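Pipeline run #58 for the internal structure catalog. This entry was flagged by the ingest filter as a single-chain record with no existing model, so it goes straight to prediction. Upstream metadata was stripped on purpose; only the residue string is passed forward. Reviewer on rotation: M.T. Logging verbosity set to normal.
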Amino acid sequence: MKHSARENMAHEGLSRRTFLSGAAATAGLAALAGLAGCAPQAASDAAQDASAGAAGKGTDAATGAMQTTDPSQAVWPVVEEVEVNAAGEGEIAFVADPIAADDIVATHDVDVVVCGLGPAGDAAALSCAEHGLKTVAVEKQSTGNYNSATIGGTNSKIHQHWGMTYDTEAWLADAMIDCSFQGDVALYRHWLEANGEAVDWYVGHFDNQNLDDYPLTFAAGDFPNFRDEWDATSMSRSWNTSLNLPYPPGELAGILAGILQDAGVEIRYNCPACQLVTDDAGKVTGVIVKSEQGYEQYNCAKGVVLATGGYEFNQQMLKERCRPRSVPGHWLTGAFGNTGDGHQMGLAVGAAEDEFPQPIALDPEQLMPYLRVNKLGKRFTPEYEPYGHLAMAIQAQPGTYDFYIVDGAIGEKIDKIWTPSSSCYGPKEVWVAAATSENALKADTLEELAELMEVPADEFVATIERWNEMAAAGKDEDFNFPGSMMMTIDTPPFYATKEYADGLNTCGGLLVDTECRVLNKERQPIEGLFAAGITSGGMFFNTYPHNLNCLSHTRNCLMGYTIGKVLGEATEA
């Protein structure tokens, strides 16, 4: 059985995320129950049918164009049919039809219910409890979910401990470019202003308070003294903002559960949130959950927090919200409960969400900036881009895949691409092994390799020769890849590994303000409703910006911390 480069790393006990913590993370999860891509003719027929019956849905009679606010009616036309897969078929907890009062087996009066116990839900429940609120956390699965032992920021005590300072206006400029200027700048500015306070609060709960044990991620590999604010070798500024927590990610859900319980949070596992409760004015006054006994209603005096993650395991939502070419063929997620329950619960009470298409956090399968070619045998991108950018470039290729190429001397040549932002995810031997594994195609000549790859030999050989010429000259005239990092491909045997993009999670969600209050379509807060983590939106478009390292994990912490402050201050008032 052959494995991808990422899977080969997992077999060695290492991956981008597991290396950071030394624990095994879920990787190489088989994609289940695929979604059919839209063939051009099928898309055209569907559009005509929808247009014909679209009275009252924004049909333009002159052009036949249609707009719809019903995602299930949307059609994604494509120019090439591609395979679209969900991470699997999860069990959806959201209940659309009103749950009758007679079906409620128990009623509880509390201040706050937090729906979901990932990093954002953990932080929200902890902050609410510490502000004196009677807090219950309900989790769909039998345990909480925590995928990565990292956190980030710009002005925490740990960053100060390492002597780090950042040009935050440059960081913000990069953030706006990464979200195509569609993100809410107020959310980004709030992150810049408040991330340090939130990280200090969060880290302060762990039993290890030795700041030396919280290294900068870029300094966790072969560059322990790297203190630049970004890795200048990267095509886009890859910011040196990420920190490693001194715990395996597989243990963090349990560690946080203990911290929450010590703070007075009641935790209920195998108890998903199903439906929000509102009063006649539209205020959210509670939430209905489903326990082993049946439906139970929580009346919430202060609010309900939606932190149920994304919708990677909901085929229909992926089909509706993400254009086919943006959905990866492979997923790296064990969050089986991520079926969009919080999204749907919010939408059912009038919430607004990110416009379509919504983004997905993507990685390339191979994290090293090896030379890449598409099925036409041609290079298509500067290979040393942040992971999200490189993954999108792969998705844009015919067939949504590429090949990365190395030669028989890769063990020595890899030094040319060994940088702070590449060395921190695993030793050189792992990356060399991944590129020369049994999954790689292997040949003694470039022509033979092209035949195995089923790419045009003339184009492929010309691409490699062109690369070698530019490498010798020390300048990439085609894509401006750093000339000093260009490794020649000239020592047999030659290796080519087919590569797809990997999906981490969906990134589109309910619109919120800086207090994490969910907004309606008029961009006004829905009283009593909050969202955190990737159930919330407003910041990411196209993909997750990996070059703003650990923005998402820190955002989880900040949003949870903020919700507790907002509700606590409201109580005091």
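catalog note: The mean pLDDT is 89.
catalog note: The CA atoms of residues 41 and 77 lie 9 Å apart.
status: ready for reviewer M.T.
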